[in-house]
């Protein structure tokens, strides 16, 4: 192993980081995480902190699940790779497909198409939505509608339905025919509506209005996260997803639930859609499917969509997209073990209890610190804290102060994530009560340093 200074220098010289300025590492060295255990990570200086980010909303089982590690490792020696393009398959991929459909049966999902991650899954789902309508004889249904503040990955399709202009403007023009509705974000919205149920109705009405304007015969699908994650942990009213489902149904529009973060227990239910009592037509999944131990994602399809594909003439029904690593045997072995561990540990139940504890703890901090403008969460282990420099004016907190709070929280024992002027948290779902208390104490120290 190279010495620490060498690592820092080589990182600054050669490694470009996603979502970061390539010159930044030269002036502001990133933390180099060397090892992890339980829900904690250790940097190269030997500083151990609780990982309240869960890697990147993905390490649901924590860092020490040996069952998943062993399954991945064994499979590496059995069959380290084979393609699943039409004509070949492999045993772990088949087992994983069974485990996945079993896990999502209550959501009505019966088929899975594996990808290498969430962005791939979103892109594939959008393609499948267009193809579904084409196969049904409605080839004009090509447009997509999504929510502002939504995050759906960074491929061209995902970026096009993304609802944060930071991820869009640099790379425009994006996919034509993508339209965005307001987010169910009570703290700031164009309707100045603070009642979440009324805001949900306003957005459903805006959805109807947009559909009428575009014409329903041109719209393929609506995609949303059940709880918006990267956009700031935006928890809608419990009625919201149902209302959007009803609008989709009225106009023959497919509903895609992007479960890349919400799936696998994070919301306190096994899926975000189930948490809100909704059955979508398709789902996109990734992250918690292997607890982040191996890159895997997928598109889930219910019978309504599957029947159209499976009964289509051979020339039309083929899925002309896919990845070298779709249904990768090592990843698939990880999926089988991870789903089995997720169910055995009943991580959703702990996520619900610890999520409430974290949310209530942060709400108490909001009584102490004026810089806390909004606290969002309380539905599983996703918590967002929006920081402001002026509570009455809701002025977003400046970057330097955000960085100072981040560093002070880290020094006090917890890694959190910054998303603009939000602190975002999504700790492993196996976190203990004492560890959640420790996160809250670290945040207290972080805010004191603002
Ligand atoms: N959809 C959602 C809801 C996500 O949160 C993410 C990643 N944070 C993605 C899609 C993209 O996934 P990936 O980074 O694995 O490509």
Automatic annotation (TrEMBL):
Gene3D superfamilies: Aspartate Aminotransferase, domain 1, Type I PLP-dependent aspartate aminotransferase-like (Major domain). The keyword Transferase applies. Its cofactor is pyridoxal 5'-phosphate. GO terms for molecular function: pyridoxal phosphate binding; transaminase activity. Keywords: Aminotransferase, Pyridoxal phosphate, Transferase. Belongs to the class-III pyridoxal-phosphate-dependent aminotransferase family. NCBIfam families: PRK07481.1 (NF005683). This is Aminotransferase class III-fold pyridoxal phosphate-dependent enzyme. It comes from Roseovarius faecimaris.
């Amino acid at each position: 192993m190279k010495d620490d200074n060498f690592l820092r220098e080589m990182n600054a010289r050669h490694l470009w980081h996603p979502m970061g300025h390539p010159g930044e590492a030269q002036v502001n060295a990133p933390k180099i995480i060397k090892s992890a255990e339980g829900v904690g990570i250790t940097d190269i200086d030997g500083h151990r902190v609780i990982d309240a980010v869960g890697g990147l909303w993905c390490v649901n089982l924590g860092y020490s699940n040996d069952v998943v590690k062993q399954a991945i490792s064994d499979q590496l020696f059995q069959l380290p790779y084979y393609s699943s393009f039409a004509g070949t398959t492999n045993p772990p991929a088949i087992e994983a497909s069974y485990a996945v459909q079993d896990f999502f049966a209550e959501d009505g999902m019966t088929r899975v198409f594996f990808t290498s991650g969430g962005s791939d899954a979103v892109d594939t789902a959008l393609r499948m939505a267009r193809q579904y309508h084409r196969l049904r004889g409605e080839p004009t249904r090509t447009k997509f509608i999504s929510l502002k503040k939504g995050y759906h990955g960074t491929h061209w399709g995902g970026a096009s339905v993304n609802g944060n202009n930071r991820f869009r403007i640099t790379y425009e023009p994006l996919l034509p025919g993508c339209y965005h509705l307001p987010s169910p974000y009570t703290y700031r919205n164009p309707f100045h509506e603070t009642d979440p149920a009324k805001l949900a109705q306003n957005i459903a009405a805006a959805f109807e209005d947009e559909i009428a304007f575009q014409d329903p015969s041109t719209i393929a699908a609506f995609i949303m996260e059940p709880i918006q994650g990267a956009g700031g942990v935006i928890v809608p009213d419990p009625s919201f997803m149902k209302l959007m489902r009803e609008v989709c149904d009225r106009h023959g529009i497919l509903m895609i639930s992007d479960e890349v973060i919400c799936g696998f227990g994070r919301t306190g239910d096994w899926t975000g859609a189930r948490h809100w009592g909704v059955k979508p037509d398709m789902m996109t999944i990734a992250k918690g499917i292997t607890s982040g131990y191996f890159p895997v994602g997928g598109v889930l399809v219910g019978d309504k969509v599957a029947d159209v594909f499976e009964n289509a003439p051979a020339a039309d029904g083929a899925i002309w997209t896919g990845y070298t690593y779709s249904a990768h045997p090592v990843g698939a072995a990880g999926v089988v073990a991870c789903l089995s561990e997720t169910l055995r540990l009943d991580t959703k139940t702990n996520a619900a209890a610890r999520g409430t504890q974290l949310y209530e703890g942060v709400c108490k901090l909001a009584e102490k610190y004026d810089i806390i403008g909004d606290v969002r969460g309380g539905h599983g282990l996703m918590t967002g804290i929006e920081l402001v420099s002026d509570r009455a004016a809701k002025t977003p907190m400046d970057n330097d102060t955000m960085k100072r709070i981040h560093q002070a929280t880290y020094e006090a024992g917890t890694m959190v994530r910054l998303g603009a002027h939000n602190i975002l948290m999504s700790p492993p779902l196996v976190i203990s009560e004492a560890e959640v208390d420790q996160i809250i104490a670290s945040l207290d120290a972080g805010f004191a340093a603002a």
